[in-house]
Design goal:
Elements lengths: L1 E9 L29 E6 L2 E5 L5 H8 L6 E3 L5 H4 L6 H7 L3 E5 L1 H10 L16 E5 L5 E3 L2 E10 L2 E8 L2 E3 L19 E5 L12 H11 L3 E5 L7 H6 L5 E3 L5 E6 L2
Parallel strand pairs: 3-4, 4-5, 5-6, 10-11, 11-12, 12-13
Antiparallel strand pairs: 1-2, 1-14, 2-3, 7-8, 8-9, 9-10
Length: 260
Protein backbone atom coordinates (compact mmCIF):
# COMPACT_ATOMS: atom_id res chain seq x y z
CA UNK A 1 0.00 0.00 0.00
CA UNK A 2 1.26 3.49 -0.88
CA UNK A 3 1.03 6.43 1.44
CA UNK A 4 -0.15 10.00 1.05
CA UNK A 5 1.90 12.76 2.66
CA UNK A 6 0.07 15.85 3.83
CA UNK A 7 1.85 19.09 4.69
CA UNK A 8 0.06 22.13 6.10
CA UNK A 9 1.44 25.19 4.31
CA UNK A 10 -0.86 27.63 6.07
CA UNK A 11 -3.35 27.32 8.93
CA UNK A 12 -4.43 30.94 9.27
CA UNK A 13 -7.41 33.01 8.27
CA UNK A 14 -7.63 35.48 5.39
CA UNK A 15 -5.50 38.15 7.12
CA UNK A 16 -2.95 35.71 8.49
CA UNK A 17 -1.39 35.75 11.95
CA UNK A 18 0.25 38.04 13.03
CA UNK A 19 -2.40 40.38 11.69
CA UNK A 20 -1.16 43.70 10.30
CA UNK A 21 -1.26 46.45 12.92
CA UNK A 22 -2.32 44.15 15.76
CA UNK A 23 -0.50 44.02 19.09
CA UNK A 24 -2.52 41.24 20.74
CA UNK A 25 -0.94 38.39 22.70
CA UNK A 26 -1.19 35.90 19.84
CA UNK A 27 0.20 38.32 17.24
CA UNK A 28 3.17 38.94 19.58
CA UNK A 29 3.56 35.26 20.48
CA UNK A 30 6.96 33.56 20.32
CA UNK A 31 5.29 30.17 19.76
CA UNK A 32 5.93 29.40 16.06
CA UNK A 33 2.57 27.60 15.92
CA UNK A 34 0.89 31.00 16.40
CA UNK A 35 2.47 32.29 13.18
CA UNK A 36 -0.12 31.32 10.56
CA UNK A 37 0.03 31.91 6.82
CA UNK A 38 -3.10 31.76 4.68
CA UNK A 39 -4.81 28.33 4.49
CA UNK A 40 -3.43 25.68 2.16
CA UNK A 41 -2.10 22.12 2.15
CA UNK A 42 0.31 20.23 -0.10
CA UNK A 43 -0.30 16.56 -0.92
CA UNK A 44 2.54 14.31 -2.07
CA UNK A 45 1.76 10.96 -3.65
CA UNK A 46 4.26 8.77 -5.47
CA UNK A 47 6.49 11.77 -6.06
CA UNK A 48 3.72 13.98 -7.44
CA UNK A 49 2.83 17.19 -5.59
CA UNK A 50 -0.70 18.59 -5.52
CA UNK A 51 -1.53 21.96 -3.97
CA UNK A 52 -4.95 22.73 -2.53
CA UNK A 53 -5.43 26.49 -3.00
CA UNK A 54 -2.74 28.98 -4.03
CA UNK A 55 -2.78 31.59 -1.28
CA UNK A 56 -1.19 35.06 -1.38
CA UNK A 57 1.54 33.46 0.76
CA UNK A 58 2.32 30.69 -1.76
CA UNK A 59 5.77 32.01 -2.66
CA UNK A 60 6.76 32.14 1.03
CA UNK A 61 5.23 28.71 1.63
CA UNK A 62 7.05 27.16 -1.33
CA UNK A 63 10.40 28.65 -0.30
CA UNK A 64 9.89 27.60 3.31
CA UNK A 65 9.57 23.91 2.40
CA UNK A 66 11.93 23.91 -0.58
CA UNK A 67 9.19 23.01 -3.06
CA UNK A 68 10.91 22.00 -6.30
CA UNK A 69 7.99 20.80 -8.41
CA UNK A 70 4.25 21.29 -8.69
CA UNK A 71 2.03 18.87 -10.56
CA UNK A 72 -1.47 20.30 -10.03
CA UNK A 73 -3.58 22.78 -8.07
CA UNK A 74 -7.08 22.01 -6.79
CA UNK A 75 -9.29 24.91 -5.67
CA UNK A 76 -11.92 24.96 -2.93
CA UNK A 77 -13.35 28.36 -3.93
CA UNK A 78 -12.45 31.72 -5.41
CA UNK A 79 -11.83 34.06 -2.46
CA UNK A 80 -8.67 36.16 -2.51
CA UNK A 81 -6.92 34.23 0.27
CA UNK A 82 -7.24 31.04 -1.78
CA UNK A 83 -6.30 32.12 -5.33
CA UNK A 84 -4.02 35.17 -5.30
CA UNK A 85 -0.75 33.22 -5.29
CA UNK A 86 -1.43 31.73 -8.72
CA UNK A 87 1.08 33.98 -10.50
CA UNK A 88 3.87 32.38 -8.46
CA UNK A 89 3.57 29.08 -10.33
CA UNK A 90 5.61 30.59 -13.18
CA UNK A 91 8.95 29.15 -11.96
CA UNK A 92 7.38 25.68 -12.04
CA UNK A 93 6.15 26.24 -15.60
CA UNK A 94 9.70 27.21 -16.56
CA UNK A 95 11.46 24.39 -14.68
CA UNK A 96 9.01 21.67 -15.72
CA UNK A 97 8.51 22.88 -19.28
CA UNK A 98 4.73 22.76 -19.43
CA UNK A 99 1.37 23.87 -18.15
CA UNK A 100 0.18 23.30 -14.58
CA UNK A 101 -3.24 21.59 -14.43
CA UNK A 102 -5.84 23.42 -12.35
CA UNK A 103 -9.04 21.80 -11.04
CA UNK A 104 -11.96 24.01 -10.04
CA UNK A 105 -15.62 24.72 -10.69
CA UNK A 106 -16.64 26.87 -13.64
CA UNK A 107 -17.48 29.75 -11.29
CA UNK A 108 -14.01 29.63 -9.71
CA UNK A 109 -12.44 29.65 -13.16
CA UNK A 110 -14.56 32.67 -14.10
CA UNK A 111 -12.97 34.55 -11.20
CA UNK A 112 -9.47 33.30 -12.05
CA UNK A 113 -9.92 34.39 -15.68
CA UNK A 114 -10.98 37.85 -14.48
CA UNK A 115 -8.28 38.34 -11.85
CA UNK A 116 -5.48 36.84 -13.97
CA UNK A 117 -6.77 38.00 -17.34
CA UNK A 118 -3.22 38.52 -18.65
CA UNK A 119 -2.61 34.75 -18.42
CA UNK A 120 -5.40 34.12 -20.92
CA UNK A 121 -4.78 36.85 -23.49
CA UNK A 122 -4.44 35.46 -27.02
CA UNK A 123 -1.54 37.58 -28.24
CA UNK A 124 2.22 37.63 -28.15
CA UNK A 125 3.40 38.71 -24.72
CA UNK A 126 6.66 40.41 -23.81
CA UNK A 127 6.87 38.66 -20.46
CA UNK A 128 6.29 35.22 -18.95
CA UNK A 129 2.81 34.50 -17.60
CA UNK A 130 1.35 31.48 -15.80
CA UNK A 131 0.82 28.54 -18.13
CA UNK A 132 -2.45 26.87 -17.10
CA UNK A 133 -4.51 23.84 -18.07
CA UNK A 134 -8.09 24.29 -16.84
CA UNK A 135 -10.10 21.24 -15.74
CA UNK A 136 -13.68 22.00 -14.74
CA UNK A 137 -15.06 19.98 -11.82
CA UNK A 138 -18.47 19.51 -10.27
CA UNK A 139 -19.70 17.13 -7.56
CA UNK A 140 -18.41 14.14 -9.54
CA UNK A 141 -15.23 12.50 -8.18
CA UNK A 142 -12.14 13.21 -10.28
CA UNK A 143 -8.55 11.98 -10.54
CA UNK A 144 -5.45 14.09 -9.94
CA UNK A 145 -2.06 12.39 -10.33
CA UNK A 146 -3.50 9.03 -9.31
CA UNK A 147 -5.47 10.37 -6.34
CA UNK A 148 -9.26 10.30 -6.35
CA UNK A 149 -10.75 13.57 -5.12
CA UNK A 150 -14.34 13.41 -3.89
CA UNK A 151 -15.90 16.90 -3.71
CA UNK A 152 -17.70 17.62 -0.43
CA UNK A 153 -20.25 20.46 -0.78
CA UNK A 154 -20.06 22.98 2.09
CA UNK A 155 -21.78 26.21 3.00
CA UNK A 156 -19.47 29.21 3.36
CA UNK A 157 -22.10 31.66 4.51
CA UNK A 158 -24.55 31.76 1.59
CA UNK A 159 -21.99 30.39 -0.90
CA UNK A 160 -21.62 26.71 -1.72
CA UNK A 161 -17.97 25.69 -2.00
CA UNK A 162 -16.07 22.39 -1.99
CA UNK A 163 -13.98 20.56 0.52
CA UNK A 164 -12.38 17.34 -0.67
CA UNK A 165 -12.06 13.76 0.49
CA UNK A 166 -8.97 11.89 -0.69
CA UNK A 167 -8.99 8.31 0.63
CA UNK A 168 -8.97 8.42 4.44
CA UNK A 169 -8.28 12.19 4.46
CA UNK A 170 -10.76 15.06 4.16
CA UNK A 171 -9.82 18.73 3.93
CA UNK A 172 -12.66 21.15 4.64
CA UNK A 173 -11.86 24.82 4.96
CA UNK A 174 -13.94 28.02 4.92
CA UNK A 175 -17.24 26.52 6.01
CA UNK A 176 -19.95 27.80 8.29
CA UNK A 177 -22.01 24.63 7.89
CA UNK A 178 -21.28 21.06 6.86
CA UNK A 179 -24.65 20.10 5.32
CA UNK A 180 -26.27 16.86 6.45
CA UNK A 181 -26.33 15.83 2.78
CA UNK A 182 -22.50 15.82 2.80
CA UNK A 183 -22.02 13.85 6.02
CA UNK A 184 -22.03 10.44 4.32
CA UNK A 185 -18.90 11.52 2.44
CA UNK A 186 -17.03 12.00 5.72
CA UNK A 187 -17.42 8.61 7.36
CA UNK A 188 -14.50 6.32 8.22
CA UNK A 189 -11.78 8.97 8.05
CA UNK A 190 -8.31 8.78 9.54
CA UNK A 191 -7.76 12.55 9.29
CA UNK A 192 -10.28 15.37 9.00
CA UNK A 193 -9.49 19.07 8.67
CA UNK A 194 -12.24 21.51 9.71
CA UNK A 195 -12.60 25.29 9.72
CA UNK A 196 -12.56 26.66 13.30
CA UNK A 197 -12.00 30.39 13.04
CA UNK A 198 -12.51 31.46 16.67
CA UNK A 199 -14.87 31.13 19.64
CA UNK A 200 -17.09 34.08 18.71
CA UNK A 201 -19.75 33.34 16.03
CA UNK A 202 -18.99 34.42 12.47
CA UNK A 203 -21.40 34.56 9.51
CA UNK A 204 -19.21 32.55 7.12
CA UNK A 205 -16.97 30.41 9.33
CA UNK A 206 -17.41 27.71 11.94
CA UNK A 207 -16.55 28.34 15.60
CA UNK A 208 -14.44 26.08 17.78
CA UNK A 209 -17.55 24.80 19.58
CA UNK A 210 -19.41 24.14 16.33
CA UNK A 211 -16.43 22.30 14.83
CA UNK A 212 -16.03 20.18 17.97
CA UNK A 213 -19.61 19.01 17.47
CA UNK A 214 -18.94 18.29 13.79
CA UNK A 215 -15.73 16.43 14.59
CA UNK A 216 -17.42 14.26 17.19
CA UNK A 217 -20.29 13.54 14.83
CA UNK A 218 -17.97 12.52 11.98
CA UNK A 219 -15.75 10.39 14.22
CA UNK A 220 -12.42 10.66 12.39
CA UNK A 221 -9.45 9.16 14.18
CA UNK A 222 -7.90 12.64 14.39
CA UNK A 223 -9.43 16.01 13.52
CA UNK A 224 -7.37 19.14 12.96
CA UNK A 225 -8.84 22.63 13.11
CA UNK A 226 -7.54 25.14 10.56
CA UNK A 227 -8.33 28.62 9.16
CA UNK A 228 -7.54 29.97 12.64
CA UNK A 229 -7.52 33.68 13.52
CA UNK A 230 -5.53 35.55 16.16
CA UNK A 231 -8.20 34.99 18.82
CA UNK A 232 -6.87 31.46 19.44
CA UNK A 233 -3.47 30.94 21.11
CA UNK A 234 -2.26 27.53 19.98
CA UNK A 235 -1.11 25.93 23.23
CA UNK A 236 -3.99 27.19 25.37
CA UNK A 237 -6.67 26.37 22.79
CA UNK A 238 -5.39 22.89 21.99
CA UNK A 239 -5.10 22.00 25.70
CA UNK A 240 -8.84 22.59 26.07
CA UNK A 241 -9.90 20.44 23.09
CA UNK A 242 -11.40 16.96 23.49
CA UNK A 243 -9.32 13.87 22.79
CA UNK A 244 -8.71 13.27 19.10
CA UNK A 245 -9.09 16.96 18.18
CA UNK A 246 -6.09 19.22 17.65
CA UNK A 247 -5.12 22.54 16.09
CA UNK A 248 -3.27 22.47 12.80
CA UNK A 249 -0.18 24.63 12.45
CA UNK A 250 2.08 25.71 9.61
CA UNK A 251 4.57 22.95 8.90
CA UNK A 252 2.46 20.11 10.30
CA UNK A 253 3.22 16.90 8.38
CA UNK A 254 1.07 13.79 8.32
CA UNK A 255 1.09 10.49 6.49
CA UNK A 256 -2.03 8.49 5.71
CA UNK A 257 -2.46 5.22 3.79
CA UNK A 258 -3.66 5.46 0.20
CA UNK A 259 -5.66 3.76 -1.05
CA UNK A 260 -7.38 3.29 2.31
Amino acid sequence: MSSLQVQVLGSGTSSGVPTIGCNCEVCRSKDPRDNRLRPSVLLTYEGRKILIDSTPDFRTQALRIGLDRLDAIVYTHDHADHILGLDDIRPFNYRQGGKIPLYATSSVFATIRRVFAYAFEVRELKTYVPQLELNVIDETPFDVCGLQFIPVPLLHGMQTIFGFRIGPLAYLTDHSVVPESSEHLLQGLDVLFLDALRHKPHPTHSTVAESIKTAQKMGAVTTYFTHICHDLPHAETEAALPAGIRLAYDGLQLEVPYPA
